[in-house]
Amino acid sequence: MSDYVEECRAALQDCPPGHSDRSMSLNNLGISLRSRFLQLGVLSDLDEAIEHLRAALLLHPLGHPDRSMSLNNLAISLRNRSQQRSVLSETDLDEAIELIRAALLLCPPGHPHRSMSLNNLANSLRDRFQQRGALSDLDETTELYRAALSLRPPGHSDRTKTLNNLAISLQDRFQQQGVQSDLDEAIELHRAVLLLYPPGHSERSMSLNNLALGLLSRFQQRGDPSDFDETIELQRAALLLRPPGHADRAMALDNLANSLRDRFHQRGVPSDLDEAIELYQAALSLRHPSHADRSKSFNNIAISLRDRFHQRGIPSDLDDAIELHRTALSLRPPGDSLRSTSLTNLAVSLRNRFQERGIPSDLDETIELNRAALFTRPPGHPDRSISLNNLALSLQDRFKQQGIPSDLDEVIELNRAALSIRPPGHSDRSSSQNNLAISLQDRFKKRGIPSDIDEAIELYRAALYLLPPGHSDRCQSLSNIATSLRDKFQQQGIQSDLDEAIEFHRAALLLHPPDHSERGTLLNNLAVSLRDRFKQRGILSDIDEVIELHQAALFLRPPGHSDRSAYLDNLATSLRDRFLLRGVPSDLDEAFCLFSQLSCLSHAASRSDLDAAKSWATFAEEMNHSSALVAYQTALRFLDQHVIFLPSPSRNFDVVREVISSLASDAFSCSLRRGAFATAVELVEQGRAVFWTQLARFRTPLDELSASGAAGEALAAEFTQLSILLRNKFDGPTEDQSSHIRKLTVKWDDVISRIRKDHNPRFLLPPLFSDLQKAAEGGPVIIVNASQYGCDALIILSAQNPIHVPLDVTQAEVSELSFEFQSLVQGAGSSNQQLESLKIAGILRKLWLRIVNPIVQALSEIVKPNSRIWWCPAAEFTQLPLHAAGPYERKTKNLSQIYISSYTPTLATLVRARQRVSRDATTQHFVAIGQANPDSGNELRCVAPELAIVAKRLAPIASFTSLQDSNATVQGAFNALRNNQWLHLACHGVPNRQQPFKSSFSMRDGPLMIKDIIQSDWQKPEFAFLSACHTTVGDEQSLDESIHLAAAMQSSGFRSVVGSMWSVDDEVARQTVSAFYDNLVDDSGILDCTRTAMALHKAVESLRKKISLEQQIVFVHIGI
């Protein structure tokens, strides 16, 4: 080609200006340079070609027979350049079009070159339409191709090309205007082209592909399965014509894979997706590392693997997809036009993994990638609104997980920005209005700002306006307005809002026929709003309609449906409302009949199942119905299952707190009122400290199972492995209902079922009373309970039936007593210590008279003085110092002078501590950790002297280690506890009553938090003295859960723990520690954690006259 260019250049030199052949030589050189550009891609060749062709045109003035040819040649070269240079593209393309129009005028009907000019003009106008989107250009293109086709009858050499061009322009117009006849005509034209390309023709594969794309478009428009199936068969045929080595084979592989993946989305046939992945991988293998489409291949495989993950849940598919997206992104460096797409694809997959596994770094990276994608799509970019929406969704995920208000505020601003660039007429405007409305409604629910709900309602209305009757999204839009109006009504009580909500619910319901999958939800929504109106106005027809709607909704939720319990609850509650109004016994009977179905639930319980069972219990109590105890048993069974399926009860503690409420305490009270003492113990154990119960399940000793033979040993190993996986996830920040955790739990449950079947029928089931009674082997355990239905104590004995002690005090009075006491001790330390002590003694006296003395009277008949007793307080009693109760009068004894008190959060905890055998005394290892100067908090002056006292007493009899100051770090503490069974910890204790898992011990480099402690795997620890403040202070809203530092240490395996109920004076701590270890260590030189309660008792007695009353009673013993 270069030789030919030089020949043409030489020929031009032989034709100087004025020469008769100069125009021909200019034209030849221009065409040769253009040909070399098309071959080699050197733009300077194209620029020079245009210069020579312009010169040739000047030599062909109006009337010259070759002017039409020159106009066409220059136009074609300008069109070529417009396709290469974006800056010059618009002017080059406009000039090319004007030149071809001029050429067409010189080719009137009948001219042999007219069809060529018509075709050239159509090609250039189609380019301009693709560049600027002017529909007039597309319409003219189509008409020009029709005109060209009419001049190329059957048998014409260019007929197939023109048929194809017309078909493609009709498809383009269909995609713009949606006129179905355009698409149908395009398909028929493609069929005609295919007939002109018989088997063996070089263009047949291209024709097969074009017809396939047309049929695929029609399937997407009308959903005819035969179109889709024919598409795939055509693409298979096209692929066969592009064998290995063919330049277009990779493209044909991609086309077939795309269609198979689309068909998978339609029909869900796994083999389609598997084949698509194989085809994409084959296409990738044909694209060498520097191939322009290699990134696209990585992306295609990644998206397909992500699809397969969503169908089959194989974690490795999602992990592989993420890595492939990363590789695709690495091939799209900053500045690449497709980088924003790669950023978005990776973000979507990482968000999917976050939703599955809850890995915080995945969510953080998702947000950063979406921010980066948004940055590459500045104002004016056609995909900017998509990036705004994606970033809003990921921030909304983080808000739901962490509750950071600023995230929700940013979500709203992003949704506003997305809406602003989807003006009236934009196809996605209603979607943006809806997204913004949802985020405003979420903020309203959190903050109650009236303007938020008002704006949300207006946006919902605007979205509805854009969804005319017949639109597929209209029903959802009506429902959204209705729920927002109901939210507004519940805050502001405006009756018209509720009336309008009801009308919108009715309108939504009309759009769903009886067999529609969402009809049950709409029936329920309408019923709930009508019930609101009934409660407000008492219209009898409303409650009758409510019941009819709930009955219809329940019919659509058969046994086994995940929503059935909620719908049972709704119908039963409405029947109760009508019974209370009219007193018809059949309504009451039907309500309890519905509730009783809950006890037969076969699937794992959800939150709605639990809520329904709690509603049953409440109603049964209210009506004094005989089913109350069964209702509580059902609710507590559901609670156990629900907590198991929470991926992270510590992260989801708000959920745990809410579902537990007063359930265990009320169940205990109900059982006692019915004389079922053993059941009372079982139920209160099942419903309290559920977090610690769950964690203990993953630490269950398996010695007996392992020793039962090879099968038992294998089961023990499998159970241990799954337990470790679950325990590691237990405090992981995972999203509620994470399927990854669910799958692990299903496997874990399967192992448990096999263990129960073949080895131990009661393995990990809630303990029976006979098991829990073992907690009292060392002395009686007293459960003290406060419920809205009454306050009681139950004394558990090792070899006798429990003893019930009714308490003449109400829950409100106990709560008031607790508040009064906490206020006093929190303000302790004033100059008038004597007055403080008198006030505290007054409260301890009330505690004695109303609560503890009746219990002591019952104990005195069966338990000798100076014996040990264990308190197991529930509800409001957990914050009261039961161990310190007494008359505090001369010549009378306080409780501490009658019995030696210890505490336990649950009976099961105490049983586990008793059952575990201590290590051989010869292997006792003791570590003392002291941090006087933590990263935050005041200096503790007595830490060093305190540790010196501990060292003096313990170093001679145990393998003793001391960590202080710079060595007392978080990791240092963990390392020490791996090798020591006895611990003394002197530092600041920092409770967190709102987020109890963040309660901590202050180390030099930061906090050692509960959430870290529960991840530990310490080897059979024995005893911990927590010389720190507030180590038994837990969550203020869920007292029964005992989420505090001392409980965390006990849960980690420490059989015996000394902790504090409030602030400890530094000097008092030093004195108490000195006296404690003096009493703990005896002449035998053997450490025994069962002596720690007695040692603390004697230490406090010895200091009674030296320290204030408030400090005398601050330390408590927990455990054996």
TrEMBL record:
Residues 844-1104 form the CHAT domain. It comes from the Eukaryota. Keywords: Repeat, TPR repeat. InterPro entries: CHAT_dom (IPR024983), Sel1-like (IPR006597), TPR-like_helical_dom_sf (IPR011990). It holds the Pfam family Sel1. This is CHAT domain-containing protein. It comes from Suillus luteus UH-Slu-Lm8-n1.
